[in-house]
Amino acid sequence: MLPRDRISAALARDGKPAIVAFITAGYPDPDSFLSTLKRISGAADAVELGVPFSDPMADGVTIQRSSEQAIANGVNLHWIFDQLEARDYELEAPLMMMSYLNPLLAFGYEALAERAVATGVDGFLIPDLPYEESAPIKAAFDKHGVALVQFVTPATSDERMATITANSQGLVYAVTRTGITGDGGELPAELTTYLARVKASSKLPVCAGFGVREARQVRQIAAHADGVIVGSALVEALERGDDPAAFLNGLRE
Questions:
Q1: Cβ neighbour number for residue 200 with a 10 Å cutoff
Q2: Residue with the larger pLDDT of the pair 231 and 183
Q3: Could you tell me the residue ranges of all domains in the chain?
Q4: Which three-class secondary structure state does DSSP give residue 205?
Q5: What is the rounded distance in angstroms from the CA atom of residue 202 to the CA atom of residue 168?
Q6: Where would I find the H helices in 108-182?
Q7: SS3 of the chain: helix, strand, coil, percent, to 5
Q8: 8/147 Cα distance (integer angstroms)
Q9: In the chain, % of residues over pLDDT 70
Q10: How far apart are CA 151 and CA 164, in angstroms?
């Protein structure tokens, strides 16, 4: 099975909402990164590993803070790959990296795809890469079956949504609202209609992210999508010293 197909298979509905768990690599403690990843991999249906970046334009204060601290602790893309290569266990869930484009461009697309496969990374999410500019990195990923996940938002037109969903791999990331990650409050009133549009357009699992913090929101989204993406709330749970597996399991209740 190709890496991108492992993602889709893991997120296929089986009567419960899939949970994609986001963490910032190496945060809050680089020394516990692999043990934290193992715990989260056992509780989530897929893991989204954030590559720390100095200007995370799509992220709110929680992930900005985690990214800044991880960089200060020496975490970068090379460090992450080295850590993944050194682990002595198999991940129970597919692993994706969420990164802004600059670190990937500096690493080199061909080298990136090869290292991803060698270390068990099944796909990438790149929030500042427009679909129209994604062909070069997608060509490198396609040689190895690595997924390039595409994003849609409530502002995406039906025509553009059809193009993006047809060209996404692994899953389609449905941003729940305009703005940045981590915003609290209620989910948008028009979320049901929006997710219905995405589901109708996509042959892949649709997972919704931005602002998901509570079990009731997971239930709300699960009625209209295949899963949810939880980021800032999980990072905050790690900051508090909470058990990440228990936090994720609580979201399913």
A1: 12
A2: 231
A3: 3-251
A4: coil
A5: 9
A6: 109-119, 135-142, 158-167
A7: 45, 15, 40
A8: 10
A9: 92
A10: 8
Looking at the DSSP bridge assignments, the partners of residue 150 are 172
pLDDT digits (tens, 9 = 90+) for 113-147: 999 999 999 999 999 999 999 999 999 999 999 99
Q: Considering the chain, what is the average pLDDT of its residues?
A: 91
**What tokens appear for 113 in the block?**
């795809």
Out of 45, 55, 59, 190, which one is annotated catalytic?
Answer: 59
Pairwise CA distance, residues 99 & 87, whole Å = 21
Distance separating alpha carbons of residues 202 and 244, to the nearest angstrom: 31
CB within 8 A of 13, min separation 6: which ones?
205, 226
Return the closest-CA partner of residue 171 out of 134, 213, 199.
Answer: 199
214 is catalytic: no
Taking only the tens place, the pLDDT of each residue in 37-94 is: 999 999 999 999 999 988 766 567 888 889 999 999 999 999 999 999 999 999 999 9
Task: Please name which of 231, 218, 244, 249 lies closest in space to residue 40, comparing C-alpha atoms.
Answer: 244
Gap between the Cα atoms of 227 and 63, Å rounded: 21
Tokens at 215, concatenated? 């079990």
Which CATH superfamily is 3-251 part of?
A: Aldolase class I (3.20.20.70)
Among residues 29, 31, 45, 48, the one annotated as catalytic is: 48
Contact assessment for residue 67 and residue 56, using Cβ atoms and an 8 Å cutoff = yes
Q: Would you place residue 182 in the very low, low, confident or very high pLDDT band (cuts 50, 70, 90)?
A: very low
